[in-house]
Write a structure and sequence with these properties.
It contains 14 helices and 22 strands. With 452 residues, the protein is α/β, with parallel strands linked by helices. The protein has 2 domains: 268 residues, Metallo-beta-lactamase, Chain A, CATH 3.60.15.10; 174 residues, Rossmann fold (3-Layer(aba) Sandwich), CATH 3.40.50. The chain has a 7-stranded mixed beta sheet with strand order 6-5-4-3-2-1-22. It has a 7-stranded mixed beta sheet with strand order 7-8-9-10-11-20-21, covered by helices on one side. α1 links the parallel β3 and β4. The model has no long low-confidence stretch (mean pLDDT 94).
């Protein structure tokens, strides 16, 4: 086999790995680049491989940094099947059309207000392109081996992280490679723990938190503290959240805190993301993939008032009543959260609470790093609100959890490829694996090719 790294090198975004053997090509993940402009521009570049030559795509999970390039892949000629788990297909049915819609809206707004160098600004792809991509999905079960052209076989293994997330082991002519995708927490309050990593000749391992340990403080304690002090100031807790996975965990935390009388039971909570609303309902559909009972799922679904229409969303910005607003996107790269940030970020009584990893160069990253002004919709917005981060709410394993999983692998791999991490995180992960396990590691560069 030959492996080429088309993304997730030096960054946590744009996951794409091309695997070739006997003239056949398989793409593992097909994500969008996010964050720094130089990365985002890669989304517009010609893909280094002709999409029409790719036989199949194997998808680890639904998040856009792993799936969001699929509509463009199909638009440019891919005609094979996209294999994923059943929950991943259902979530992509929300994410991909929504991504296209947001692309269209961003282009429309840029043209209307003139903050674009392109005349006219065009969307990367459209809502219709996102809907078209769903026709190529072929969902399959966990832990069953499937065969592809050219003698490849593969199987999906439960990874935690979000509904449907999987690590993938691929075998071809006596060689094997395992792609971790995003690895979930060992002790999460909602998702079950990831399966053990299977033995393979080569491992491609994520390193999002390769240089960090998550706070030991309970997410419930952290959230309760933030909510109480914000309410005392008469402010709003605004939570930029990933619509799939994180929003559902936050609703669970809020429901638990109200049940335990740790925050006011009558505190208004709004989920302002149609996609997050649908994803929350999908959580109840797949009870076997998480820890919540059907009754708990129903309570999570009822933990917030759902905000469906743009007018309902705008109405939230006119309220001065203490409340919690959860809105997408999680890194503040687009969506309704930008309108809420423009309204609530300038006031010091409010709190901006980030609950997930912020990729370098995103608005979320700039706010968390303490920038006093951040551009939104072509204008600079003052950040006077309190800014806090719930690192302990992350859906990614930290380095200690990844090392625990790697330590249980039964056979020493030939090589480990460290991907899906900022440079410092990847380097720290490499150092730990080499020092503690004695395995050979490589941090691949963009477009690097390896013979397996």
């Amino acid at each position: 086999m030959k492996l080429t790294f088309l993304g997730a090198t030096g960054t946590v975004t744009g996951s794409k790995y091309l695997l070739e053997g006997k003239g056949h090509k398989i793409l593992i993940d097909c994500g969008l680049f996010q964050g720094y402009k130089e990365l985002r521009l890669r989304n517009w570049d010609k893909l280094p491989v002709n999409p029409a030559e790719i036989d199949a795509v194997l998808l680890t999970h639904a998040h856009l940094d792993h799936s969001g390039y699929l509509p463009l892949l199909i638009k440019n000629g891919f005609r094979g099947k996209i294999y994923c788990t059943h929950p991943t297909k259902d979530l992509c049915a929300l994410l991909l059309p929504d991504s296209g819609y947001l692309n269209e809206e961003d282009a429309k707004r840029a043209n209307k207000y003139g903050y674009t160098k392109h005349k006219p600004a065009l969307p990367l792809y459209t809502k219709a392109d996102g809907e078209k991509a769903l026709e190529y999905f072929s969902p399959i079960d966990f832990n069953k081996e499937y065969t592809l052209k050219g003698g490849f076989t593969f199987s999906f293994h439960y990874a935690g992280h979000i509904l449907g997330a999987a690590g993938i082991i691929i075998r071809h002519e006596g060689r094997s490679a395992f792609f971790s995708g995003d690895i979930g927490r060992l002790e999460d309050m909602v998702m079950r723990s990831p399966e053990s990593i299977p033995a393979a000749d080569y491992l491609v391992i994520e390193s999002t938190y390769g240089d960090r340990l998550h706070d030991k403080e309970s997410p419930l304690d952290k959230l309760a503290s933030v909510v109480k002090r914000t309410i005392k100031r008469g402010g709003v807790v605004l939570i930029p959240s990933f619509a799939v996975g994180r929003a559902q965990s936050i609703l669970y935390y809020i429901n638990e805190l109200k049940k335990q009388d740790r925050i006011p039971s009558n505190l208004p909570v709004y989920l302002d993301s149609p996609m997050a609303i649908n994803a929350t309902e999908i959580l109840c559909k797949y009870a076997d993939f998480h820890k919540l009972s059907q009754n708990e799922c129903n309570k999570v679904c009822d933990a917030a008032e759902y905000v469906h229409t743009p007018d309902e969303s705008k109405a939230l910005d006119h309220s001065n009543v203490p409340s919690i607003i959860i809105s997408a996107s999680g890194m503040a790269t687009g969506g309704r959260i930008l309108h809420h940030l423009k309204r609530f970020a300038p006031e010091d009584k409010n709190t901006l609470l980030f609950t997930g990893f912020q990729a370098g160069g995103t608005r979320g990253d700039r706010i968390v790093r303490g920038e006093s002004k951040v551009k939104m919709h072509g204008e600079m917005v003052q950040i006077n609100a309190e800014v806090d981060v719930m690192h302990n709410a992350s859906a990614h394993a930290d380095y200690e959890e990844i090392m625990t999983l790697l330590s249980s692998v039964k056979h020493k791999p030939i090589k480990v490829f460290i991907t899906h991490g900022e440079p410092a995180s990847a380097s720290a992960m490499e150092e730990r694996i080499e020092e503690k396990l004695g395995w050979e590691c490589t941090i691949p560069k963009y477009l690097q090719t390896e013979n397996l």
